[in-house]
Amino acid sequence: MPDPSRIPKLPVEISQSLVVARGSTWRRESTLRVLCGADHSVRLLVLTRLPYQVDRSYLPVTGRNAVMFVGNGRDRTDFKMDVFANGVDDRSFFVRNRFTDKFYPETLISAPLSELQISQVAQSLEPSVRVIISVIETGTFMKGTETGTALAQFAEACTTADDNVTPQRM
């Protein structure tokens, strides 16, 4: 995955994070983290390489509708995401869109999640369960790495955390 210094400045200071899914589609890596903001908000952070059909000249975009499917595809959670491009890719169209390309992934960060949204994701999340994030008419596929219980405990600890925790840079 990318050098953390290449990830754009996030709109909130992060006190903790938990990796809940990882994936590789056509050799393009993706990671889904749950973030605990210093303001006690719980957000999703996706580091991925969106397919080449996405026109990066429009990035960043804010407030895009996004959907997460966990498990069998019937467990759907809707939320808003901001999408950022990490760096400028000025290589030729064919070079930058090879299936093995791992050049600067995009960063997608959600608005703060509600308790209902956290519960919806947690109820089906298990290791090896399929997780799909769909945004800007494309998406990324991953496999869960944590249980829904771990996610729920992380979110609970975040929202009730002590304010003396030192924020960290991702």
Distance between the termini: 12 Å
Principal-axes geometry comes out as globular
Could you tell me the strand content as a percent range?
Answer: 35-45%
Enumerate the strands of the largest sheet in spatial order, edge to edge or round the barrel: 1-2-3-6-5-4-7-8
Give the class from helix and strand content and strand pairing: mainly beta
What is the average per-residue confidence, as pLDDT, rounded to a whole number? 77
Any low-confidence stretches, pLDDT <50, length ≥5? none
Question: How many beta-strand segments?
Answer: 8
Q: Identify the quaternary structure here.
A: single chain
Tally of helical segments:
3
Which series of helices and strands comes N to C?
EEEEEHEHEEH
C-alpha Rg (nearest Å): 16 Å
Helical coverage, percent range: 10-25%
Main beta sheet: 8 strands, antiparallel, barrel
Question: How is this structure best described in words?
Answer:
- The protein is mostly beta strands and 170 residues long.
- It is 14% helix and 39% strand.
- It contains three helices and eight strands.
- Strands 1-2-3-6-5-4-7-8 form an eight-stranded antiparallel beta barrel.
